[in-house]
Amino acid sequence: MAPTQSRTNEQIPAEVLDRIYSTMVRIRRFEELTTELFQAGQVKGTAHSYIGEEAIAAGACANLRPDDYIGSYHRGHGHCIAKGADVSKMMAELMGRETGYCGGLGGSMHIANMELNILGANGIVGAAMPLGTGAALAVKLRGGDQVVLSFFGDGAANQGIFHESINLASVWKLPIVFICENNQYALSTSYKASTSVANIAERAVAYGIPGQTIDGNDSVEVYREVGEAIARARAGKGPSLIEALTWRWGQHSMRSAIRDPRTREEMDRWIARDPIKLLEERVMKERSLPARRIKSIQEIVQAELDKAVQFAKESPEPSVEAMRAAVYAPHKKHEEPRDKGTRQMAFNDALCEAMRQEMERDPTVFLMGEDVGLTGGIFGCSKGLIDHFGAARVRDTPISEAAFCGVGVGAAIAGMRPIVEVQIFDFVTLMMDMIVNQAAKFRYMLGGKDKVPVVIRGPQGGGIRLAAQHSQSLEAWFTHVPGLVVIAPSTPYDAKGLLIAAIRDDNPVVFLEHKMLYLGSTGPVPEAHYAIPIGKADVKREGTDVTVVATQLMVSRALGAANLLEQEGISVEVIDPRTLRPLDEETILKSVRKTHRLVIAHEAWKRGGFGAELAALVMEQAFDDLDAPVARVAAIDVPMPFNDNLERAVIPSQERIIEGIRSVLY
Ligand SMILES: Cc1ncc(C[n+]2csc(CCOP(=O)(O)OP(=O)(O)O)c2C)c(N)n1
Ligand SMILES: [Mg+2]
């Protein structure tokens, strides 16, 4: 682990040394105060001290322009400070105050600030890497020359997302530098015991990029080496991996009181190489900074931090109203066209037209996913788009769901409007962290500022014998999560108008398309650009005896059932919520108050399904209006079988919907 010597003796301007030194002292003092405040119960939860590792953030970020980006991780205070964050707003955030960077909703582990292009610390190990990669893609698509520094720990280098992100960044030659802060332990686990190579930088070879291990306690070496990698990235030559060897002086976190496996001898050896002392010795020897300047930096920083602590302590607590308002960016207002016209179109063509028109209208919209480019998607939803817009905006991705979804989220945070196609929605399991922990929470954790305008769309559902891993209906996973919009259209007209609304929305949207609709559904679709308001249900058929709330493929089956029952004099109202979150509760309740009976039909499993939520809504708000218990028609509670007769038995049929309707009538 012998730290390498600086490769160049070229003088570094005094102004840069001054900046690096000031940053290191600011970080050190910030962390010392945070520890005191944590022990006094004023900083709550947890915080991860960066003491001992200051040279990396300070040296690396001294190369950055204000418009460059950084992505950080749980040990992130140092990165924010080095990128220019205001220590008062940071301290206020650590104390959970309204004046903090995130209004008290994020805390130590989630500080982000898009005015400074800080993409955020992150509570999920490794998760910031694809977000940074996404920001780098945004830069490249805009033709800019900013760079992204993506900081992470040695533990993160064993996450799949590390490998996927670096591969993707390399394949797309993105302007990003991956900086592994190897403090040699992930909590209590030594990297030597958990990593397949002696030096993490060796892994760069696998991705065809430069990789190098440097002394992370030597701020000058960090400044120089990261500077070279940044220059390379800015020049369009792609990413690099830098491993900076270092040591954390404290416990894993301020909260943790675990047995520390590190030896006293190791500890002493590293503490003797205090990065601040090393730079002090150097500037004294080189006479590049006078002793009185060193002293004055320490005094200035102390005064600044005393003020920061006072500011934080005096700041108000955040309000419940502000917390509630932080979850969603307001949805845009849209008017549906009065006339659907006569042009007939298939469901997948309607989706394709929505994407084409939005990409024409807005240069920040782009599509990525597996086989969306040359092939136009396996269900033809992006057919021909590559011919209109080129391979940069209609991007074929590696089979790296977590990474390209995270890249979509990162690009959205950095100002683009990506559409991420999930080839078959069952594969969304591999994207869950990016959707649920990252996209859904980003705006909220920033205190309700900023937006994440990404659409994650693709086919779900059964009907074409693809069995248990390619046929599920998973909407309930997403409707459960505050911060996500969930849309599930049932007609080509709705598909186009809702996809346009989803692309224009400033929130992450999960957009579910049913495979059987691609194959079977045609209908009138206006040529004009139009958007259907998010959160507005559609009464597909009016009736007076019973309300059926149906989604996706079940809408046409419910309509078929309604037509048959009409012959018996039973009048069925069919409602398609279209948007499942936010839900148009009013339209559903109004209908139930009229018909007094409710049947819910969806293809997903009944247990824990979206229908349970609808039934609870009606029970809570319209119990007195009901003349019969609510009935749910849903899939049999088994994974989707391969055999066609069995598959037909599992998915609700028109007959089963009719039975459901009869069950509430008699
Ligand atoms: C995906 C995930 N797994 C586990 C954790 C719990 N955890 C938080 S930090 C940490 C160790 C991370 O080590 P490393 O990446 O080396 O960073 P360091 O703490 O050493 O700076 C663990 C296991 C988590 N937050 N996220
Ligand atoms: Mg570590």
Quick summary:
The chain is 42% helix and 14% strand. It has 666 residues and is α/β, with parallel strands linked by helices.
Give a verbal description of the structure.
With about 675 residues, this protein is α/β, with parallel strands linked by helices. The chain is built from 24 helices and 21 strands. The strands form 5 sheets. It has a 7-stranded mixed sheet with strand order 10-9-11-12-14-13-19, sandwiched between helices. A hairpin with a 2-residue loop joins strand 4 and strand 5. Helix 1 (about 15-40) packs across helix 2, helix 5 (about 130-140) runs parallel beside helix 6 and helix 15 (about 400-415) runs parallel beside helix 16. The longest helix has 26 residues, at about 15-40. The termini are far apart. Magnesium ion binds near residues 153, 154, 155, 183 and 185.
Main features:
binds magnesium ion; elongated; five-stranded parallel beta sheet; 24 helices; disordered N terminus; 14% strand; single chain; binds thiamine diphosphate; alpha/beta; 666 residues
Bound heterogens, unique: thiamine diphosphate, magnesium ion
* Share of residues in helices: 40-55%
Class based on secondary structure composition and strand pairing: alpha/beta
The low-pLDDT segments are 1-6
* Binned strand content: 5-15%
Q: How many angstroms separate the termini? A: 79 Å
- Main β-sheet description: 7 strands, mixed
